[in-house]
Amino acid sequence: MTVQVFGLGTVEARITSSIGFEVGAALAELNADHGDRVKYGDVIARLHSAEQEARVAKSQAGIINAEATVTRAVAAIDKARAVLTQRKQRNDRKQALLSNKTISIEVAEEAQMEADVAAAELAVAISDREVAEALLKDAKSQYDYEQVLLDHHVLKVPYDAIVVARHKELGAVLTPGEPLFTLVAPETVWALAYVDEARAGDIRVGQAAEVRLRSQPRQLLWGHVSRIGIESDRVSEERKVYIACDTCPESFYLGEQAEVFITTTVLDKALLVPEMAVEGFDETHGTVWTVEDGHLRHREVAFGRRTLDSRLEIVGGLPKGARVVSTLRPGLREGRKAKFTENVAP
């Protein structure tokens, strides 16, 4: 005997994305439409980008200008070093002549000052090169930034997908972040079933499940429990159970109603009684009428699992050989003689 739990839900997908551009502009190119299959990296749309292309060109010119400034600064350093070497040599000669009292102190001091000025000019030239190199880095960063903004004018597919919807047409002006396409990863399609909390206690991940779609009522699809929602609905008192398909349909329709039957266990041997034949049932206990030694008895029994056709498994409370009355009829009373029943306690 197979014990199943029923859930009613819809066809959904684990990976569904609404994608668009990070910048705003007019749509200049569209390469995909509803129902198309697209691959990772495919270009499916472009924005008008002439203005941004001009900014990229301007930033490229800025790099060229900055590189020229660096080249000029390096040449200035070479010149300043040559001048400094020349003036150091002249100063050394002047200081030697001064020690021999061949020249005046004023001439020697002038030579020393020229050498010091040349050293200062070299330091300035080195500083100018550092500034020029910093400006070059800034120009390259600006170019990278403008190039990124230009790349944002191209919309690429983030994963292999099916286009569920296209929300705009050519010429439409989009704002940043506005959805243009809705995509779904077809391999992540599953059924989302809502199961009554009172029936969901035995559901486990990995259990087999059958799915019947509303559009194909005569066809059963096979799957398994992939995820059980951690949070139940506080109003409807239902639990979300996600069923991944083992035999997936060729086509799918998101939001289509689906009936789900989850197999929670298989009973090799069980004594079952219709719920309508139980009095005072509280989900775990109730009373049933039995036939024992040819007489009716009223006994409280314990129940286990419940089948989809509203039969309850009796797991305790019956003496050996007792037969359970499966249909309640007028006139049942304790001790009355009886002959017939369908169920026998093992």
Tell me the fraction of residues in β-strands, as a range.
25-35%
Morphology call: elongated
What can be said about the biggest beta sheet?
6 strands, antiparallel, barrel
Low-confidence stretches: none
Strand and helix order: EEEEEHHEEEEEEEEEEEEEEE
Strand order of the largest sheet: 1-10-13-12-11-14
The number of distinct β-strands equals: 20
Radius of gyration: 43 Å
Count of domains: 3
| Tally of DSSP helical segments | 2
Query: Distance N terminus to C terminus?
Result: 16 Å
- The portion of residues assigned to helices is 25-40%
* Arithmetic mean of pLDDT: 89
Which structural class best describes the helix and strand composition?
Answer: alpha+beta
